[in-house]
UniProtKB/TrEMBL annotation, chain A:
Residues 476-496 have a biased composition (Basic and acidic residues). Residues 406-480 form the Lactate utilization protein B C-terminal domain. The keyword Electron transport applies. InterPro entries: 4Fe4S_Fe-S-bd, 4Fe4S_Fe_S_CS, FTHF_cligase-like_sf, Helical_ferredxn, LUD_dom, LutB/LldF, LutB_C, NagB/RpiA_transferase-like. It comes from Knoellia flava. PROSITE patterns: 4FE4S_FER_1 (PS00198). This is Iron-sulfur cluster-binding protein. It comes from the Bacteria.
From TrEMBL, chain B:
Residues 48-217 form the LUD domain. The lineage of its organism: Bacteria, Bacillati, Actinomycetota, Actinomycetes, Micrococcales. This is LUD domain-containing protein. It comes from Knoellia flava TL1. Gene3D superfamilies: NagB/RpiA/CoA transferase-like. It comes from the Bacteria. Residues 14-43 are annotated as: Disordered. Residues 20-33 have a biased composition (Basic and acidic residues).
Length: 510, 220
């Protein structure tokens, strides 16, 4: 049996430093840490409240995991069924082995329509393949229509420079950029625009509406693809998804092959699990379901691109394949003590947080610095597993991957070092001390700038801050260890991640 | 080998260790065409819960007897100061007549472009299913709800739902939709007006969808 190929690291993330050094860099950014702290804790509380309302939550988790497992274990059959259902309903199905192939398909369809722009609903799959860059290269402008993405684009942070701040923009900055830039790319912002969030949202509404009304081609992802009916599902908040999925003549959806659900009824558990876990709502504002072409309603040309790009490689690992159950809710990010302090970018991928620490090395292999270090980006505290709506045992998978990295021998120093870090982080008392320190530091900084709700949005945090590689993990570790004796106590706590030797109440274990 | 064959071959070899039987044949179409058991009216608690949860999203909720629906629609649109309203082709004729008295009424068939819809203040529709535990309205865009753009472009949506369309929870709603072969039509699940928290974590109601949502629950 030939193992299916891994995913090629996309251009943006080639040469990313290993997690610990990227993380260290992020930790120095106190503002971001404050934002993340506030965001993750807000969403965590909301999630806990709405999950608490559901009496049989655990049973629904089990049902959700079972539905995904059924699809994954028999993925060949369900993909064929999905293709059949879609085709029967008038959709055109394409298959893409990797990012380049998927991009080529989308560019070709857009070109055939003769357009020089497309509107986009934010989607992880299209970020993963860096579709916007491919479209730009073909002379087709991709308008992101999610409010946060619009802000990023207006700041000139074009998608080709993914690692650029968005979360740091406060309301005044957003007003200024709206006033300055909107007129250059479409309908200008009203001259009397204030920095009230409601007024800013209104300005975005008017600006984007012009684009929605004239767009002829839209690109989306899908949260679920139902094999027995051929229905695609997009879950969203703002309504930009509905606009993109409804108004243009042509719709192209890029769908990872792991998005398949066997039957319509599997939506029962999924639509309970996803919104509550993601944004902490009983239900998200809007969900759109479409089944191929609907005569007289919505796009009359519907394309679906089924994307592999390393997923079959993950599937080949009988234990690791459970990671493909992920529905990208980001609950694991919001409960993760490591993510809260480092932010998403340190993970070197569009998939951050605990699931990113698993999925990236699974998809891309463990040969690069960052991918080999990611399995250590965890305290193994288990909070992610408890939060995960489809019961992915992230700690178990991290341990497995650590074994793989250790076996390949190239990162022994890292693994020894991170064992010590894991030891500090895994003791709740030591971690509590560190967390108290971080919280106090955060409070002192005050709340000045913008942050965004993770949940459906946390996935984009990975592009928040540029992090030029400076030193290897070995250098970082050696330096930190050398200085840990004297000053590491207070500084270590303010940074949030305790240094080895910072175990104030440490016993004798090492 | 083409991409399709290659991906399918990869996936099949990746799952070669799986020994369980696929439930593909057993379960496919398990609920389609099945008449949902007992189309009974929901309990008063379920209707109350639905009303509460819809209101929780900052939508306006009114409960009226079936014969007072037209009046309620007119009253809501009047108090919101709306002037023009688009009506789906299959909307209750009595409601449309009531609207004609006071508003500029545009038929769905006369507002064929998104641009035309963009200058209309409001839309009035029926609904397919309501979900109490989540405060959700599901539109299946049957003739009394109109094509999707109708409930997307105008800024105010008045949605009328009958009590007997309200299900208690998500799974029974999903099953009901399938039983009615709703996937033959597009579906829109609406839980409150559109919202964003992208600016300083502050929730703003209404970005691209209708910013004002009025739900009229019609009793017997
Ligand atoms: S792994 Fe994380 S993002 Fe994925 S479903 Fe589980 S909690 Fe959600």
């Amino acid at each position: 049996m030939v193992t299916p190929p891994v995913q090629q690291t996309s251009p943006t993330f080639v040469g990313m430093p290993a997690f610990p050094e990227a993380a260290q860099r992020e930790l120095a950014n106190t503002q971001q840490r404050q934002n993340l702290h506030r965001a993750t804790h807000t969403i965590r509380a909301k999630r806990a409240a709405v999950v608490g309302e559901v009496a049989d939550w655990e049973a629904i988790r089990v049902a959700g995991a079972a539905a995904k497992d059924e699809a994954l274990h028999h993925l060949g059959d369900y993909l064929e069924q999905l293709e059949q259902s879609l085709t029967a309903r008038g959709a055109t199905v394409h298959w893409a082995r990797d990012a380049a192939e998927a991009n080529r398909i989308v560019v070709d369809v857009a070109r055939a329509k003769g357009v020089d722009e497309v509107v986009k609903v934010k989607s992880m799959a299209t970020q993963e393949i860096e579709l916007n860059e491919a479209l730009e290269a073909a002379g087709i402008h991709a308008w992101e229509t999610d409010l946060a993405e619009l802000i990023v684009q207006l700041f000139g942070d074009l998608p080709s420079h993914i690692l650029v701040p968005a979360i740091h923009r406060n309301r005044t900055e957003i007003r200024d950029v709206f006033l300055r830039e909107m007129g250059n790319v479409g309908r200008p912002a009203p001259a009397d625009l204030t920095d009230e969030p409601a007024r800013l949202a209104e300005a975005a509404r008017l600006h984007l509406r012009e684009k929605f009304l004239r767009a002829r081609v839209a690109v989306s992802g899908a949260n679920f693809a139902i094999a027995d009916t051929g229905t695609l599902v997009v879950v969203e908040s703002e309504g930009n998804g509905r606009m993109c999925l409804t108004l243009p003549e042509t719709l192209i959806s890029v769908v990872g092959i792991e998005k398949v659900l066997p039957t319509w009824d599997d939506l029962g558990p999924m639509l309970q699990l996803l919104p509550r876990s993601s944004t902490g709502e009983r239900m998200n504002p809007y969900t759109t379901m479409w089944t191929g072409v609907h005569e007289g309603d919505g796009p009359q040309e519907v394309h679906v691109v089924l994307l592999d790009n390393g997923r079959s490689h993950v599937l080949a690992d009988s234990v690791g394949r459970q990671a493909l159950r992920c529905i990208r809710c980001s609950a694991c990010l919001n409960v993760c003590p490591v993510y809260e302090r480092t932010g998403g970018h340190a993970y070197g991928s569009v998939y951050p947080g605990p699931i990113g620490a698993v999925l990236n090395p699974q998809l891309r292999g463990t040969t690069s610095e960052v991918d080999a270090s990611l399995p250590y980006a965890s305290s193994l505290c288990g909070a992610c597993f408890d939060a995960c709506p489809v019961r992915i045992n992230i700690p178990e998978l991290l341990v497995e991957l650590r074994g793989t990295v250790a076996e390949q021998g190239g990162h022994r120093a890292e693994s020894a070092a991170m064992k010590a870090a894991a030891w500090v982080l895994s003791d709740p008392r030591r971690l509590a001390v560190a967390q108290r320190g971080a919280t106090t530091a955060g409070k002192l900084i005050g709340k000045r700038t913008i942050t965004r709700v993770p949940g459906l949005g946390a996935w984009t945090d990975a592009r928040n801050v540029p992090t030029p590689p400076k030193e290897t993990f070995r250098q970082w570790w050696a330096r930190e260890r050398d200085t840990s004796g004297g000053e590491a106590g207070p500084r270590g706590r303010a940074d949030g991640i305790p240094k080895p030797g910072d175990g104030t109440d440490a016993g004798g274990e090492a | 080998m083409g991409a399709r064959e290659e991906i399918l071959a990869r996936v099949r070899s990746a799952t070669a260790d799986v020994t369980t039987e696929s439930r593909l044949d057993a379960t496919s179409r398990r609920s389609e065409g099945r008449v949902p058991a007992g189309r009974r009216n929901p309990s008063e608690e379920t209707v109350e819960l639905f009303a509460e949860n819809v209101a929780d999203y900052e939508a306006t909720v009114v409960r009226v007897p079936a014969d007072a629906v037209a009046e309620a629609i007119v009253e809501q649109l009047r108090s919101l100061g709306r002037r023009s309203v688009v009506t789906p082709s299959g909307l209750d004729a009595g409601w449309v007549d009531a609207l004609r008295g006071e508003f500029e009424v545009v038929a769905e068939t006369d507002a064929t472009s998104a641009q035309a819809l963009d200058v209309i203040d409001a839309v009035v529709t029926a609904a397919a299913v309501g979900i109490a535990t989540t405060g959700t309205i599901v539109l299946d865009h049957a003739p009394d709800q109109g094509r999707r753009a109708l409930t997307l472009v105008p800024d105010t949506h008045v949605c009328v739902i009958r009590e007997d369309q309200i299900e208690h929870d998500v799974p029974e709603s999903v099953t009901r939709l399938h039983a009615e072969a709703a996937h033959a039509r597009p579906l829109t699940w609406i839980s409150g007006p559109s919202a964003t928290s992208d600016i300083e974590l502050q929730r703003v109601e209404g970005v691209h969808g209708p910013r004002t949502l009025v739900v009229v629950i019609a009793g017997a």
